[in-house]
Amino acid sequence: MQAPRPPRVVFLCQRVPWPPDRGDRITTWHFLQHLLQRGASVHVACFQEEDRDGEGVAFLGKSCSAVEAPMLSRRSRKLASLRGLLTGEALTLPFFRHGALTAAMARWAAAGPIDLVHVYSSSMAQYAMTVPARAKVMQFAELDSDKWRQYAAVSGPLGRWIYGREARKLLAFEDRVARSFSCSAVVSEVERELFRTRIPGVDPAVLPNGVDVAHFTSTGDAERHPHTAIFTGVMDYEPNVDGVCWFADACWPTLRERFPNARLLVVGSKPVAKVQALAQRPGITVTGRVPTTPPFFDRAAVAIAPLRLARGVQNKVLEAMSMGLSVVSSPQAAQGLGSVPPGTLTVADGAAATIEGTAAAFADPARARSAGLAAARWVRDEWRWERMLQRYDEVLERLDVAFPR
Q1: Which of 56, 276, 287, 296 lies at 20 to 30 Å from 231 by C-alpha?
Q2: pTM of the predicted model, to two decimals?
Q3: Residue 223 resides in a domain
Q4: What are the residues facing 345 on neighbouring strands?
């Protein structure tokens, strides 16, 4: 009996899914790697954004059947996105529209039947709308339209108009995608409820992010400082910039008064000028890109996630917990986690609560460490990637996507 052929998969995502050093790359890499490990023949379409992405494309080319990854200049694409004002569509769509990816999709479709199209981020769904495939999975994670709605709510008159328009137009596109794909997926139950409200009649699957618990494992307390807090993330991403700058303005001066030797580590690539300027303040270090984050977690007594523009499951929270740190988080950054064991996470709404939560960890580092170790046990039980990818396998089984055995 002839063995079944490997399924032909087209995998679409905004950024080159390697190295897994930021939220979306972490997620896309693990799902892509899982498809490859199960024996799929995977064609990847994505964008390069910086010179080092060429290394990622070369790495993927060793295991993927094809990789199409044109360079994306955000400056020039911002001008291209203005076409949306003429066409009446969301500006996001022409921003991420590129002839090379359209041509690649046509080639791959002409070369033989496609068993699965997997799309991460609604902006990339435009390439898959007319491409025939046995099954299509739209991994929204979160509704991008709601991000623009949040931006509109905190902006001035011009921002309210631009962001509000983008929220409405993009939601209309997301609605069309969700109704045409075989399966929509979101990252948490909170997102699922929002999705049902915004796109009624479509019930998405829940595919949470996971944690590489082997990588995010503490090596001990030798370098730990009892009055050090850490914030991690890509530091040109507006929710991260807003959150850490708010913490530095609203919370850090009071914490330094109470704990004169307090330190704040801001760890992440691409710090914008506002973030770089934080390094001029007493006790704050801005690292820029680092080879790996675990050694920095091991210097801290507490992690902070004071995001005001956020939903979903925050990798920075899970990674800190996996490293054995207690976390002080805004409600927005914590809501995707569901039920968390008591004492392992401090949800702080506003400056006063954030100060008190951080100060409590500084004042009693042994108790904070105990809470962190409990958090690490919980993450290992509930949030390891292996468990999350089992859910993905269940989705693919329902869609009758067959893999070699």
Answers
A1: 56
A2: 0.88
A3: no
A4: 327
